[in-house]
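Team,

Forwarding the record for the chain on the shared tracking sheet. I've put the sequence and predicted structure together so nobody has to dig through attachments.
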Amino acid sequence: MGIVYDYLGYYAVFIILFGVIAFDVVLRGFMVEKRTADKWRAKEANIHDDSPVEGTHPDEETGSDSDSTMAETENTALRPPSPDERSPLLHSKPTSSQSWIGRTFPTMAILASSPRLLVAIYGAFTHTMLLACIDSILPLFVKRTFEWTSTGAGVIFLTITCPSLFGAFFGALSDRYGSKIVCLTGFATTAINLALMAVIAHNALLDKILICIFLVFVGKSLASADLFYEVGILTETHSETFGKGGAYAQAYSLLCLALGAGTAFGPIWAGTFYQKTNWPITLATLAGLTSLPALGVYLYTGGSANDEKEASMEDSDGRV
């Protein structure tokens, strides 16, 4: 967008943004929800079941009818007796030890009771907050220090975004060696490189190279606990509460809440400190905020994927 602003002006930037939003709306219109797709699959399955099969005989059809009659008889025998005049009019409700929040919002209460899920949401908040902080102060810093235009201020963000292309590689490392090690390394590396960026203070070639290197490490080190893996475990454990739809929608709403809070909090924090103090102090505060989730990751984030699956299976067997 910096290049577009330099060569095409202010309004061209917003024309491109509105075009991207319109294209996104069109793509969402072509999406097929899982429930609708399940209905289509059920209709196709019924069509295949109703089609006659070659080589069938009337005796086989008669046998199938007798089998269905026997199944209905068994279901009738297993059905509880209907109430009569001796049945009580009012049934006693089972007492529950849950709180009002647990009874009113059971799915949200289960999600909020998972420390690992809360750590994942806080990690997403920290990630978004840090990106919003960098978005708000980095263009001002490179303009004041390096005298760059909007083109240079836009190109330097490639050092943060390009490492995200290797997300699949870091996910594979998390599955093999455990998400705890990957997350702790990510938060520690991010905090260290943010602190080292404080030495950038002059319009020199070495400083320009160093800030690009530090931003690359910041971009590749931002990692948090695997949110939706924990949601999958909770869905299997509390299947009677979540139902067929699971808890992914509500977990995603919590994630969006964390992303929105980080986007709102980050620019206010970084902009205030950068205006009232200076570049090193601002980066020191950001390094401190980034290191805070490390304690939660160390305490509650699990190991490798295989270890977590075995632990979840043992827990479910213990509950049964």
